[in-house]
Model the fold of this input.
Amino acid sequence: MRKIQLSFAFFAAIVLLSEGKAQQTPQSNLYGYNRYSINPAYAGATGCTEVYFSHLNQWVKVEGAPTTSFLSANSRIGKRLGVGANVLIDKLGMLQQVAASGSLAYGFTIAREHDVRLGLTAGYYQFRVNPDGAIVFDGNDVIVNGGEQSASSINSEIGFLYRFKGLEVSLASRQVIQSFSNFGYSGLDGYGLRRHMIGYLGYRLLIGDNFGFKPSVMYRGVSNVSQFDFNADVDYKNLIYGGLGYRMNVGLVGRVGINIRDLFFIGYGYEAPMQNVAKYSSGSHEVILGLKLCPRKKEPLQDSLSVRDVVQEIKIDTVYQTITDTLVVEKIDTVFISAPAVTDQEADRVLDLASKSLEFENDKAIIRKRSYGDLESLVNILLLRPDLNINLEGHTDDNGSEEYNLELSRNRVNAIKEFLVANGVSGDRIKLAWFGETKPIADNATEEGREKNRRVEMHFEK
Done:
């Protein structure tokens, strides 16, 4: 393609030499906090309405360096459909790109645990050229002599997203339908954005009850030019975020973020260049502001009266005999005094009763008092049978966002563990797992099905 002879300032040469075609789409250092910005399949993926604004100022101290402002919103409609929209203003020297587009995504689940989403974006973008103040190398350049000009075209994008437990894989193609504009001049091939591929691979690991660690790789490619980001991010209780990354052939990227009351998000990213532009620039700065509105207001997972407080209150009003301190003895035959009498069949029966009768306060990790009786009987079994360990698995229905349901299932199994430990069972004998809404055993479309999916499964391990 014969290039239009646009006369940029000195920084333009740096752009072409250092990043080439990889910079044809707007750059970002904080895409991990708003992944809808890199793939339309993320529209509605969290189940909440999310609005983000970000601004990136690249290569500070370089005159005419790129600046990018991006505003996006996405939400879910029902359980499967996602919608989104975004507006972008990208400036590079005398060239400005203004784009607006809308997205539609659809998600489904395979084998109860594998989530797949497909996304499509269509929109409009406009290129503007203002050569005022440009350093001219060719006085006959028709673009430079033509003054301020603009041209417009369509934008299209498709995306794919796959999630399995902590694994996340996405792939998107931007500018699926390639188009160019010659600004009305015949004989010029024109300016346009070529088809780009964007890939993302990440896996979030839980470290204890409070920390998450997520290594990830980001890929951008156009024609035969590729760029990779290698990232490592941590989070504390989904409240405080931080991470470091290496951008191939560019430099290091650092970022931090904080959630405020699970409603507002503030993030900052800094790119420290190590090659090419490093000698001319003090780095790139980016800020992001987010607003997250979930379908319904969630009450705090912890009440003013904790499970431990409840257990202590019970003990005050209970007359102890040996190791038995059951609050409500609904089934007296489940309280055992001598170890030889506790057979495997009886232990399994008590476990089954405790599992079936277990109830929590609505949307909370607070065990209802009517469940104490069978839980206390389970405590007795564990105290009389030290050879038995117990596995607890938490599950929810699909009402609410996936993140919230995962956290709720975790807090509920922790509440049961706290109850057992407070009554004398060693914490080393209790194993926990939580899956949120990812493993339903019934149809979430009905109230009966949702009730079955709200459960904690208990299993003995010998």
Observations:
- The chain has two domains: 10-293, 307-461.
- The first helix runs from residue 10 to 18.
- Residues 307-461 form a domain with the 60s Ribosomal Protein L30; Chain: A; fold (CATH 3.30.1330.60).
- Residues 50 and 292 are 5 Å apart (CA to CA).
